[in-house]
Write a structure and sequence with these properties.
heterodimer, A: 260 residues, globular, B: alpha/beta, Rossmann fold, 6-stranded mixed β-sheet, 11 helices
Chain lengths: 260, 473
């Protein structure tokens, strides 16, 4: 798997750059549209949670909530993008896959790389926002790309499985959407853990994205290095989902090529 | 003397699993393969083949015969279910021309992108970029986005790119069907160069003209198996026959179904169907219905309704040997009332050069002088094909004029004047293409050079200059 990816690395990087160019420089307002969606979500949640329901989490000011929300929502959105686009990526590239001896994983990897880039862009946008609302930042900022990378690496493992299943069973794509919608509410993205009942709380950390999101947020808001437990969990999930992805891709390689 | 083997295929087969419903695949996983929910479909089975260096192999066969599946296995896109194959060196397969290109990128960028897709070493295409640009004749368009290209330009770009990549086996799957004739000639000249460099070329096409002109050897596939491997002429004949059979089978199926529905006992259906098809004769010279190709009504004063091309035995065919007689049948539907109808058959070569054109002027005195709207007029033209071995296009015209006008025009003796003097009811261009192959020579006078053989004969004498005597033997 890794071997075949490295054989196509020049294509991977080449088409990655081209796609970046279209995404961010294709149209004059392209870059702007890219942020409309997340900013709109931030606005809606801030109004709803901060003013309408008056559910203040952490700090008491609405600005604290905005920071809290952005630092959780942005990595999550980049992760969702990875899975959503990843699920359909093989079908979108069937033209290449059914004519060339390329491994499907190349396209999944490219998609995850793009989503990783999205996450980095979001992080860069977050820095002035965080500073503006009075937080300080230090060297721990350098851990953001590392955590983001691990997060999207786990996403790639899941995408690898999803893309194969979706190609063979089209309903998978339809099921994925509601699952991703519900999944958001089981994570401390919109609110803190303490909104969950006491007995559920210890289970939350077993939710795969949990430590990725909390670590990301703590670096930006508290300048704290993730704990050993957090690192342990993150590495564990990356390995688990990568293995699962590689297993699926190997098992279904022939089926995918036959059905495209 | 056989050259070195470039590709050897041994007992290769590919089975596809057909699931009636995508979830059936899931059900099968759940039982860990203990229970089958799929049907097997063998797209290719028991195929063994050797292709030698510098060989130009053609693969033909009806749709769904397994040609593409076979090629996809050789290029590594699909995994064979059984058997094995061995390739020496790099196998290069042309993406269906033009479709693998990224519309947003320029021609140059697309060439570089394709090189990455084909895992070529860095710098490989970069070195040849100038040659590729020149061969493609795209000029400044080479640096413009592909979305501005015409289909022909895309074909040029793709072919130019592939023509400059060294490989040991080049696979062309139905790729040279498009493009203008001059570029096509250039492409084939390039392929000849590759052959000289010991590249093995495998070509899949439906164009019998290309097969006949370029392939040394042809493989005919049907239902996943090779049914002929060798002489191109034999293969093309067998293929044409195969198509006729499948058409006959379809007719037989329809007839059998109708017989069953009308209450004929199942045991007798087959016999009756065969009888029915055999007896379905048309009045006069007109051939049996199943050899005919139907045309859509194109409107106008008259419209070509159906036609057939039969060989001397009465079988539908588009491939003939030099000197054989082609029987061409065609039928026009009259969409208005006309005077005497006169048909013209034109034979043109691929460069659109007119080689033969004739009017149906025999026995016109015996024809009715007026034909009402809605009538079908049928013609049979037997032509002895003493033409060069290549592909030809047939065009049809239908004219009308009164018999007096025609008689006067004939007296003038000018063919062009004759055509100008009549009213044209309709013209059908490119009705069909036929392919001529070299003859099986029985008499030496059958051989000729040039475009056509003119009727005539040779006599020979050697005379003693002084005595004016013909020396006796």
């Amino acid at each position: 798997m890794i071997n075949s990816l490295s054989r196509y690395r020049r294509y991977l990087l080449g088409s990655f750059w081209t796609e970046l160019r279209y995404r961010y420089a294709g149209t004059t307002v392209g870059f702007f549209w890219f942020f409309v969606n997340p900013l709109l979500e931030v606005l809606v949640y801030t109004v709803v949670f901060s003013y309408v329901i008056n559910l203040r989490t952490g700090g008491q000011r609405p600005s604290d909530y905005v920071i809290f929300l952005c630092t959780g929502l942005f990595p999550w959105l980049a992760f969702v993008e990875n899975l959503n686009k990843g699920a359909t990526v093989l079908i979108a590239n069937r033209l290449y896959l059914n004519r060339l001896a390329m491994p499907p994983a190349v396209f999944v990897a490219k998609n995850s790389l793009l989503s990783y880039f999205t996450l980095l862009i979001y992080s860069v946008i977050l820095i002035p926002v965080v500073l503006l609302f009075g937080n300080r930042l230090n060297w721990t900022l350098l851990l953001i790309p590392v955590i983001g990378f691990l997060f999207q690496l786990m996403g790639m493992g899941i995408s690898l499985t999803l893309s194969h299943l979706h190609t063979l069973i089209p309903d998978v794509g339809e099921i994925l959407n509601p699952i991703l919608q519900l999944w958001r509410w089981t994570l401390p993205i919109l609110f803190k853990d303490d909104i969950f009942p006491e007995f559920v709380r210890p289970l939350l950390r077993w939710n795969p994205p949990y430590y990725f999101i909390t670590s990301f947020r703590e670096i930006l808001t508290e300048q704290s290095v993730p704990s050993a437990t957090a690192w342990g969990f993150m590495v564990f999930w990356v390995i688990l989902f990568s293995m699962a992805g590689i297993f699926t891709a190997t098992k279904l390689y022939s089926d995918i090529k036959d059905s495209l | 003397m056989k050259k070195e083997v470039a590709l050897s295929i041994e007992d290769l087969g590919k089975r596809f699993k057909i699931y009636p419903n995508p979830w059936d695949r899931m059900k099968e996983w759940m039982t860990f393969g203990r229970q089958d929910y799929h049907k097997d479909f063998w797209a290719v089975r028991n195929v063994s083949l050797n292709v030698h260096k510098g060989e130009f192999l053609g693969i033909i066969g009806p749709n769904g015969a397994g040609k593409s599946t076979l090629l996809k296995m050789i290029t590594g896109v699909l995994t064979p279910t059984m058997g094995r194959y061995n390739t020496s060196g790099r196998v290069l397969s042309l993406l269906e021309l033009g479709s693998g290109l990224d519309l947003e990128l320029t021609g140059r960028e697309n060439v570089l992108r394709s090189a990455q897709l084909l895992e070529l070493p860095q710098g490989y295409v970069e070195e040849r970029l100038e040659e590729i640009r020149e061969f493609s004749e795209l000029g400044e368009f080479f640096d413009r986005p592909i979305s501005m290209y015409s289909t022909g330009m895309r074909t040029r770009l793709s072919f130019s790119m592939f023509a400059f990549i060294d490989c040991d086996i080049l696979i062309l799957d139905e790729v040279l069907a498009v493009g203008d004739i001059f570029f096509k000639q250039k492409c084939f000249a390039r392929l000849d160069d590759l052959i000289k460099k010991e590249t093995a070329i495998i070509l899949v096409t439906h164009s019998m003209g290309i097969i006949q002109r370029y392939c040394d050897r042809v493989v005919l596939m049907n239902a996943g198996c090779i049914i002929h491997d060798g002489d191109p002429v034999v293969a093309i004949r067998a293929f044409t026959k195969l198509r006729g059979q499948s058409q006959a089978r379809q007719v037989a199926q329809v007839v059998s179904q109708e017989l069953l529905e009308s209450g004929v006992p199942e045991s007798d259906v087959e016999k009756y169907a065969a009888e029915f098809i055999e007896n379905q004769k048309e009045p006069g010279f007109w051939p049996r219905a199943l050899t005919l190709a139907k045309k859509q009504n194109q409107g106008g004063s008259a419209s070509l309704a159906q036609f057939a091309v039969l060989d001397e035995k009465g079988d539908a065919s588009l491939v003939f040997r030099q000197g054989e007689t082609m029987h061409f049948y065609f039928e026009f539907e009259l969409l208005e009332t006309v005077e005497l109808p006169v048909a013209q058959v034109e034979i043109r070569d691929e460069r659109n050069l007119l080689l033969h054109s004739k009017l149906s002027l025999q026995d016109i005195a015996s024809l009715p002088s007026i034909l009402p709207k809605g009538y079908l007029v049928r013609f049979h033209h037997a032509i002895k094909l003493d033409l060069a071995a290549q592909s030809y296009i047939i065009n049809l015209d239908l004219f009308t004029a009164s018999s007096e006008v025609i008689d006067n025009l004939i007296l003038d003796g000018s063919y062009v004047g004759l055509i100008r003097g009549m009213k044209r009811l309709c013209r059908a261009e490119g009705v069909l293409a036929i392919h001529l192959m070299p003859p099986i020579v029985e008499k030496p006078e059958q051989l000729f050079g040039g475009l056509a053989s003119l009727p005539g004969k040779f006599e020979f004498q050697a005379v003693n200059e002084r005595t004016r005597q013909i020396p006796s033997q």
